[in-house]
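Try this one yourself first.
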């Protein structure tokens, strides 16, 4: 099951499909296929010190643990799924490298909000149930 990867891909593609640079559109369309996303994030992994989750900045220790978690995604088989948490390293990294806000509504109605202190360009809305994760169009 690749719903997390599909949801992330859909959000990024929706965001960048209006990009005025054709080369950027072509590059992103190839790199952001669901099966390539784990390695894309491993290659772009970094300490995400510009991101707050639910209004709180994250400790250096936690940010280091996030980096280690992302490193483990190298050649990750997307068909086995990805368990997305309420303070998720992957969503933290997306917020940092794409300079976006993320709103993730969980199955129990709680919402996690990821904010980039550089004033995110747009907001990615995600929802999840106990077994599924998806992107919500703007």
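Now uncover the answer:
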């Amino acid at each position: 099951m690749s719903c997390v990867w599909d949801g992330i891909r859909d959000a990024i593609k929706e965001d960048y499909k209006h990009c005025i640079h054709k080369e950027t559109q072509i590059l992103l369309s190839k790199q952001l296929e669901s099966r390539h996303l784990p390695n894309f994030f491993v290659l772009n992994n970094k300490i995400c010190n510009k991101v707050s989750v639910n209004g709180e900045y994250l400790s250096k220790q936690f940010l280091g643990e996030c980096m280690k978690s992302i490193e483990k995604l190298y050649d990750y088989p997307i068909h086995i799924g990805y368990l997305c948490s309420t303070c998720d390293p992957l969503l933290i990294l997306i917020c940092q490298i794409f300079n976006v806000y993320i709103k993730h509504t969980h199955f129990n109605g709680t919402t996690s909000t990821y904010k980039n202190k550089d004033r995110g360009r747009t907001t990615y809305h995600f929802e999840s149930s106990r077994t599924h994760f998806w992107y919500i169009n703007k």
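Discussion: The mean pLDDT is 87. The longest helix spans residues 3-16.
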